[in-house]
Structure formats: structure tokens, C-alpha cells
Design goal:
By secondary structure, the protein is mostly helical. The chain has eight helices and no strands.
């Protein structure tokens, strides 16, 4: 698959790692996550709050660091997690009152909305792409040795200004438009006109 698809597993991995760090920094935020959504009690239990960020961190790092074929297990686990997040967000959106997910710790206290739903749908799409890529033998750690991948990551494949502002081709038999004529041409033309005016009889 194309090298730029390395962005899909990276998006999933970074999301999981950031979410895990946010939950560790503010462990109390998980106590009110999805409160009022009518979810089973075990989802907010102490066991889940303790080991959930551990699973996110392990899977996020595994997606990036594990080679083929072991990365498939991490990508599969990450895909299951983000799919579960999507289901929880759908339930929260349909709840009668505002519900906060606390997906990234205490900083993520805004109520779940359509924007949250769209974000999780895109995350599931990225997870599916990453899963297909891993199933076909692709891995992040294997692609990091390619210069093309670093080009995608660093934006080196963006068009250069010279390509964006390149002079358009001129059809045969036509003169170049005046806006593309160089200052030297204009200066020469102006000087020739001045010289002609001086030589003309009064």
C-alpha cells in the first residue's frame, strides 16, 4: 500500500497515547465520564479506570514500535478500542441530558456533541485503514526507514513556490502577456521609445 498510509496508524497511536496520559494526569476525571448516559456500572468501575489507560498506552506504542506481523495485534486492539469509543459516543449523543466523555482527562470536559461523533468516526476510519495495511504486511516501524515516508511526515511533498507560480505556456504565434514580461524588457522598450522621440523631427 502507498507509504502515505503510515499516517493512519500514527493518528490512532497518537490518539491512544495522548488519551492515556490525560487519564493518568487526572485519574478522578474518569469517575464522571459518561455519567448520565445509562451505561452499565462496570464501565465506570475502579478496575476499568485503572487499566484502561494502560491498555491505551500499550496499544498506542505497539502500533508504532512493533514490526510485522506483531503490529497486527496492536492495530487490532486499537481498532476494537476506537470502535468501542464510537459506540459509547453514539449512546452519549442520544442521552436526554449533556454527557461528558472525559476522553483525554480533565481537559476534555465539554459535553459530547456532533463534533465528538465526527471525530470518532474519522478515528474509526483511520483504524480500519491501519488494520488493512497491517494485514497486508505494512508497519510504521518498517516504513520509518523510507525517505518517502519522512517526506510525507515533514510535508516535503507539498508543491514548491516555483511550481505554483510557474509561467504558463504561450501558444505558438502569440506574444507573452505583459504581466509576464521582465523589467529588463520594459526598460529596453521605454528607452527605445525615448530615443525614437528625440530623433523625430519637430
Amino acid at each position: 500500500m502507498p507509504d502515505f498510509l503510515v499516517l493512519a496508524p500514527l493518528v490512532v497511536a497518537v490518539t491512544l497515547v495522548v488519551a492515556a496520559v490525560g487519564k493518568w494526569r487526572h485519574p478522578d476525571a474518569g469517575q464522571t465520564a459518561f455519567e448520565g448516559a445509562g451505561l452499565p456500572a462496570w464501565i465506570g468501575s475502579g478496575f476499568v479506570r485503572r487499566w484502561h489507560p494502560v491498555a491505551e498506552l500499550v496499544l498506542g506504542l505497539g502500533i508504532v514500535l512493533l514490526p510485522t506481523p506483531w503490529n497486527l495485534l496492536a492495530v487490532l486492539g486499537g481498532a476494537v478500542l476506537v470502535l468501542a469509543y464510537l459506540v459509547l459516543v453514539i449512546i452519549a449523543v442520544r442521552a436526554p441530558g449533556p454527557v461528558s466523555c472525559g476522553c483525554f482527562g480533565a481537559e476534555d470536559t465539554a459535553p459530547v456533541s456532533g463534533r465528538t461523533l465526527a471525530r470518532n468516526i474519522l478515528l474509526v476510519v483511520a483504524a480500519v485503514i491501519a488494520l488493512v495495511d497491517a494485514a497486508l504486511g505494512g508497519s510504521v516501524i518498517g516504513r520509518l526507514g523510507s525517505l518517502a515516508v519522512w517526506g510525507w511526515l515533514l510535508g516535503l511533498h507539498w508543491p514548491s513556490p516555483s511550481r505554483c507560480w510557474r509561467r504558463p505556456p504561450v501558444p505558438p504565434g502569440q506574444r507573452s502577456p505583459s504581466r509576464w514580461r521582465s523589467p529588463t524588457w520594459r526598460t529596453t522598450t521605454r528607452n527605445s521609445r525615448t530615443t525614437s522621440a528625440r530623433r523625430s523631427p519637430t
